[in-house]
Design a protein that fits this description.
The protein is mainly beta and about 200 residues long. The chain contains three helices and 13 strands. The structure holds zinc ion.
Length: about 200
């Protein structure tokens, strides 16, 4: 049974290769739904009106003493303040190493000359009046992204484990702005087929 974290106040479906954003007040929850399955969100967040404080994967890993995040975990900022709590997670497999795809990467891998998630997120920052220099690689929580840190030292992109309807719930622990690029990388990282994600905002 799918439990809802409160009263739904907003729902938006975002297509791959597009950005989305929204503000949350402390206590509200953002649910990210993998509509068709195997789709990655390049997801960043900053303290509301303070882009120098942002979700930080490395400080979170340090404070959790692991790189695998689970329901019940706190996600921290670069100033080590609690920013989110993972309150539900039907996938339990995400990439927390930071970074995003880019136009440069699409050229390098001879895909095409289109924007990648970094470029799309820069557009999202500028749409909010925030200079794109504030976009930090370490701030990107790659929701539903499956990366293997294999014992032989390999770092391997694999198909996401998420299925249609899977979701993660993030409860805001401060007033914040979230921004996302729904990844358009055509290969295994998105199950070889980029598809939309839905972003639902709930009051407590
Ligand atoms: Zn991407």
């Amino acid at each position: 049974m799918t439990q809802t974290p409160g009263r739904l106040v907003k729902s938006e479906t975002i297509q791959p290769h597009h950005y989305g954003f929204g503000t949350l007040r402390k206590g509200q929850t953002l649910r990210i739904v993998d509509v068709e399955g195997q789709q990655v969100a390049d997801f960043v967040s900053i303290r509301l009106n303070e882009p120098t404080e942002y979700l930080d994967c490395v400080y979170t890993n340090w404070l959790l003493n692991r790189w695998r995040w689970h329901a019940g975990d706190t996600i921290y900022t670069n100033l080590m303040n609690p920013m989110w709590t993972i309150t539900a997670d039907t996938v339990d497999d995400h990439y927390t190493g930071g970074g995003f795809c880019s136009r440069v990467a699409r050229r390098l891998f001879q895909i095409d000359d289109r924007k990648g998630c970094r470029d799309t997120l820069e557009d999202a920052f500028e749409a909010n009046g925030i200079p794109k220099v504030h976009l930090q690689s370490v701030s990107c929580f790659n929701v539903f992204m499956n990366v293997g840190y294999d014992p032989d030292g390999s770092w391997v992109l694999r198909e996401p484990k998420s299925k249609a309807g899977d979701y993660i719930d993030l409860r805001a622990e401060m007033d914040l702005l979230w921004l996302v690029s729904v990844c358009y990388w055509p290969q295994v990282v998105n199950g070889n087929k980029p598809t939309p994600l839905r972003f639902e905002t709930y009051d407590a």
